[in-house]
Every structure is written in C-alpha cells, then in structure tokens.
Amino acid sequence: FGISIETGNKCPPLGREILKDASPAAVKWFQNAEIKHGRIAMVATIGFLVQKLGVHFPLYLGPSGSNCFNPESSDAWLLSSTTGQTFSDLASLPPLEAIQAVPNAGLFQIFIIGGWFECIAYNRQWKEGREVPGDYGYDPLGFTIDGID
C-alpha cells in the first residue's frame, strides 16, 4: 500500500499513518483493494471510450441494419418496454447521460452482477487462502505459466 519504486520503496507519510498498527491481513486487504479498484478504473475507462465511439449493445447480434458502429435500425431492441427506450437511444447519448438514462432495473442488474463477482473474488482470495493480493486464479491470457508463486 503505497510502497513502490515511485516512492523510493518507502511508505509515504499518509500510508505509514494508516498502516501503523495494521496486521499483515489488513495490509493484504489494502493491497487487494488497491489492485481491484485499479482494475475497475481501467474497465470503466474502456467502457467510457467505447460508448463515446458509439459502439453499442447488441453489436452484430441485433436486428438487421444495426451493427456496432451504426446503431440506427428500423427494428431496435427495447431497453425498457414501459418507457419505449431502445439500446439505439442509449448509443446516441453522451456517456454520462447514457448512465442516467438506464432504467432502475438495469442498474439493479449491474449491482447484482457486481456483488456476485465480489463474492467470487472474496472466496478465492480469503477462503482459499491465496497469498498474493489480487490473485483470483483467473488468467485468461496466460501471463503466468504456473500461476502466481
């Protein structure tokens, strides 16, 4: 937590104060949280850029005439049947306005999926006793040969 090459391998004053009486498990928790928040920020940045470029769901799975860069379609998929809002409508909005236009049921689904991922991560990090913070045993690109040692 805060100890890296950028800080001369020394803990900065605020980090030192926070970690003054911390147990090794608490330091691991802070490191794990820092890694997780960094990953979430990277995915959010990609999502913002994708929305800004006009790429939208359902990509090529949508009705004919609708693709990832051309959201206009004569037969657009409904996002909310009560409001008549379509995925094409969201794709035409700026990213921050698109978030506000998502119905509450959609935001609830995002919350539930995020909670499910958090439960899986908690189980893999703490219940399975993995020593390295951020090691959830998932390496789809094969960056580690035998896992993290």
Which helices and strands appear, and what pairs or packs with what?
Layout: H1 13-18, H2 24-52, E1 78-80, E2 85-86, H3 87-91, H4 95-101, H5 104-127
Antiparallel strand pairs: 1-2
How would you characterize the overall build of this protein?
Helix content is 48%, strand content 3%. The protein has 149 residues and is mainly alpha-helical. It has a two-stranded antiparallel ribbon. The longest helix is centred in the N-terminal third of the chain and has 29 residues, at 24-52.
Using brief descriptors, characterize the structure shown.
149 residues; mainly alpha
Which stretches of 5+ consecutive residues score pLDDT under 50? 59-65
Q: Note the main sheet.
A: 2 strands, antiparallel
Strand order across the largest sheet:
1-2
What pattern of helices and strands is seen along the backbone?
HHEEHHH
Number of strands: 2
Task: Return Rg in Å.
Answer: 21 Å
Helix content: 40-55%
Average pLDDT, rounded to a whole number, is 75
Structural class: mainly alpha
**Number of continuous helical runs:** 5
Distance, first to last CA: 20 Å
Proportion of residues in β-strands:
under 5%
Molecular shape: elongated
Task: Explain briefly what this protein structure is.
This protein is mainly alpha-helical and 149 residues long. It is 48% helix and 3% strand.
